[in-house]
Amino acid sequence: MFLENYGFLIVAIVQQALLGMSLWYPLMAGQLSLASIGFYSLGGYIAAIMGTSPAFAAWREALGPALYPVEWLIALAASALLGLAVGIPALRLRGIYLALATIAFVQVLNVVVLVLDVTGGAVGLFGIPQPFESRLGYLWFFGPLLAVMLIFSARLTRTVAGRSFMAIREDELAAQAMGIPTTFEKVRAFVIGCGLAGVVGAMSAPFLNTWNARQSSFDASVACLAYVLIGGARSVWGPLLGAALLVALPEVLRPLKDARLIMNGIVLVVACIYLPQGIAGLLASLRRREAA
Amino acid sequence: MSETILQLDGVSRSFGGLMAVGDVSFSVQAGEIFGLIGPNGAGKTTLFNLVSGITPVSAGRIGFLGRDILGLAPHKVAGMGMARTFQNIRLFAGMSVLDNVRAPMQAFSRTGFFSDLLGLPASRAQEAQIMATAMDLLNLVGLGAKARAAASSLPYGERRRLEIARALALRPKLLLLDEPAAGLNLAEKAELSDFIRDLRSRFDLTVLIIEHHVPLVMGLCDRLAVLNFGRLICQGRPEEVRCDKSVIDAYLGDSHAAPRT
Ligand SMILES: Nc1ncnc2c1ncn2[C@@H]1O[C@H](COP(=O)(O)OP(=O)(O)OP(=O)(O)O)[C@@H](O)[C@H]1O
Ligand SMILES: [Mg+2]
Fold first, then answer.
1. Based on CB atoms within 10 Å of each CB, which residue in A105, B12, B79, B102 is the most buried?
2. Edge to edge, what strands does the sheet with B223-228 contain?
3. pTM of the model
4. Angle in degrees, 0-180, between the axes of helices A139-156 and A182-208, rounded to the nearest 10
5. B116 vs A188: CB contact, 8 Å cut-off?
6. Do A159 and B117 touch (CB under 8 A)?
7. Among the partner residues B52, B113, B118, nearest to A177 by beta-carbon distance
8. What is the mean pLDDT of the segment spanning A55-75?
């Protein structure tokens, strides 16, 4: 009962958490990017085209359900390559300029998608085949990916590359003076995020059944960033905590009708002011206080 | 005659109309402790930034280990074996003391990204190696017990020492120290001289040090260069420099005319 009613919500939280995570990696190297939603869109189009276009009929025939992992891999490769192409010039910019460049990139992508035939123009693509009967079934897609990415993040902080990312975040100039190739590492962190966003897009196309340029709106970009900042950019759990709160909140507050939007805004503002390290930072300091 | 590690030829840098460093030439020999002194704003830190590739020169040449390093990115210069500390301490504040020292060791990593993520045997062996080296360095500067603390939680003197340990993690041939005694108390200053000499012999280092504290500089350095308004006004052994008229006028002034060593 509960699971059926809330199936969509649960899957949406996990899916949005993964998108938040795709911004978490560049942030780990101190880079504020809003490009993820563009790669999410790209991945979604790849899955939508492979799922609906007559050109891929033979693939669908031959692969059956194995088509889905093939879509993910192609989305991963395409997003990582495009991420490399965008990242190398964009990551020469710093701070707010990088953020602006990534917003511009998403806008360009949206225009391209609107004029192309394969992407269905403004209408987009619909009738994307769905592997699961219920919404909750998609947890079989997003759940394992979330688990893998959480382990990936936790491991990353203990590797040579992870330490380089964090050193750049803490002090880019000192990192350079300590021999760390900062541009290379920033591109690496960015490309990891792009690849993840592409795979999430490829998984989301069947989940949402239709795909169009509205998937990569500016609002969606900002929402992904909010998950990380509210959840905590310095904790592996940050994007999940942030997405859980921000995706569930409007549903929980539904009885409040229009006032819920105000509540939503208040939560954001309060979190920004009082939780500079996000929810994860708050939990960590509570735990420390208990231990002391 | 020993080998030349660092060679500056007519190095200049201006900011707008201000000549921060003007036509400076000197060379540092392997194994030397070479001091760089001069009044506030003389251009000492700027010279460090030029040498380490952080600020581009306006004119001149800089050779390091026999290679022209002009235009080389700072991380490449560092990778050749030049490490530095900063006058205003630039640690990786949000990272642990241990990670501050482990981060520069990426330069020696022989394992791949995915091998590290999966914790394959080669990566695990390398991590153990990195850990052992980092702990040795932290013990050397007396911070072994604080390895897990956040760098930002350290008191001032310990931050200075951590910055030196972080620089040493790069296994440098040339170590640049920008006012390492600043903010230290007298006892700490006295220890610092011995510590730097000890580092030189232990790691086969050449040291280029900026320092205001005259007794420390005179007692520690093999040779000195004196900057004033961006110009090199004098260089030589400490006793030569101390007696140079222009140095006394420009820098040491009356109160420091006869510094005790
Ligand atoms: N990035 C910069 N832009 C503009 N002016 C600069 C810059 N860096 C240094 N300067 C100027 O260059 C001159 C030399 O500064 P520098 O920091 O090298 O002096 P210093 O010898 O290290 O002095 P101190 O003993 O106070 O550390 C100063 O007048 C300073 O204001
Ligand atoms: Mg200075």
1. B102
2. B82-84, B174-178, B206-210, B33-37, B223-228, B231-236
3. 0.91
4. 170
5. no
6. yes
7. B52
8. 88
Report residue B254 as tokens: 């009356």
Alpha helices per DSSP H over A29-181: 36-52, 57-63, 67-90, 95-115, 139-156, 160-170, 172-177
Q: Give pLDDT tens digits for B6-20.
A: 999 999 999 988 999
The pLDDT tens digits for A122-178 are 788 888 888 888 888 888 999 999 999 999 999 999 999 999 999 999 999 999 999
Residue A103 included in any domain: yes
The pLDDT score that the predictor gives to residue B258 is 42
Q: Is A260 part of any domain? A: no
Give chain B's domains with CATH numbers. Answer: 1-81+173-261 (3.40.50.300), 95-171 (no CATH)
Q: CB-hemisphere CA count at 13 Å for A236?
A: 14
> Ligand 1 within 6 A of B24 CB?
no
Question: Cβ contacts (< 8 Å) between A153 and chain B: which residues?
Answer: none
Q: Tell me how far the alpha carbon of residue A217 lies from the centroid of ligand 2, in angstroms.
A: 48
pLDDT of residue B250: 67
Could you tell me if B195 and B172 are in contact, meaning their C-beta atoms sit under 8 angstroms apart? no
Asked whether residue A278 is assigned to any structural domain, the reply reads: no
CA distance A127 to B77: 57
Residue A277 belongs to some domain of the structure: no
Q: Which of B74, B99, B118 sits opposite A176 (nearest CB)?
A: B74
* Ligand 1 atom 4 nearest Cα: B15
Residue A74's domain comprises: 9-244
At residue B260, the pLDDT reads: 38
Whether B107 and A179 lie within 8 Å, measured CB to CB: yes
Spatial CA neighbour of B77 closest among B61, B53, B97? B53
Please classify residue A147 by burial: count the beta carbons closer than 10 Å to its beta carbon, then call 0-12 exposed, 13-18 middle and 19+ buried: exposed
| Contact by Cβ (8 Å): A177, B78 | yes
Per-residue pLDDT, averaged over B129-157, amounts to 95
Spatial distance between the Cα atoms of A173 and B90, rounded to a whole number of angstroms: 9
**Strand bridging mode B33-37 / B223-228:** parallel
Q: Which residue from A152, A164, A188 is facing B103, i.e. has the nearest CB?
A: A164
Q: A198 is written with which tokens?
A: 């592409």
Give the closest residue (by CA) to ligand 1 atom 7.
B15
